[in-house]
Amino acid sequence: DTAVSQTPKYLVTQMGNDKSIKCEQNLGHDTMYWYKQDSKKFLKIMFSYNNKELIINETVPNRFSPKSPDKAHLNLHINSLELGDSAVYFCASSQDAGRAITDTQYFGPGTRLTVL
Amino acid sequence: QKEVEQNSGPLSVPEGAIASLNCTYSDRGSQSFFWYRQYSGKSPELIMSIYSNGDKEDGRFTAQLNKASQYVSLLIRDSQPSDSATYLCALYNTNAGKSTFGDGTTLTVKP
Question: What is the mean pLDDT of residues B9-19?
C-alpha cells in the first residue's frame, strides 16, 4: 500500500490552462504539505495544512489554491498556468506538525508538471 | 542569508571513503534536524533525524548536531556507489510549526 500517493504522475498542458493535482495519505497523519522542486532541484514549501486548516502559506501566486476536503487529502489547483510553473510538485505528510517535536515527512512520488 | 545552507556540490568521493555533508542554519528556534536522500527522479526519503547535541549513529551513517554553532552534519562511512544521490538537510521549528529544507548537496561515489 502506498503511504502517500499523488495523481497524475505526469502532467503536460498548455499555458493558460487550469489543472489540479491530487494527493492522498493513508498514514493517519494530521499534517500535509505541498512542495515545489524546480529544475535546479531546490525544494520549496508552498502550503501546509493541519487537520484541514491552512497553517503555512508561503509566498506563492494566488493562482495556486490548495484544498483539503479531509485530513487524508490535500489537492492543489493551479489557474492560468505559466511556463515558470513547470516543476515537480511533491505532496508530503507528517504526524502532527502542530504539537510534535519531530516532523518526519513522508513524500509522495511527485507530479512532473510541464507547461508548454 | 538563507535559513539553511549546505556545502555546495557536487561532492565526489571514491568508493569506500568517508563522505562528509555539512549544513548550517540560522533559526535558533529549530529543534529537530533531518537528513533526506533523494535519488534522481525520485522523492526525498528520510535517512537520519537528530534532536540532541552530539552524534547519532545508524549503520554507516552518523549525524552530528551542534546547536551552539548551529550546524548539523552527516557522515557516510564506507561510501558505496548506491549512496550517490542528493542529500537534503532539513530543520523543524516546533513553535512555528515549520520545516525548512536546504538546497541539497549532490554526492557521487565513484567505483
Answer: 94
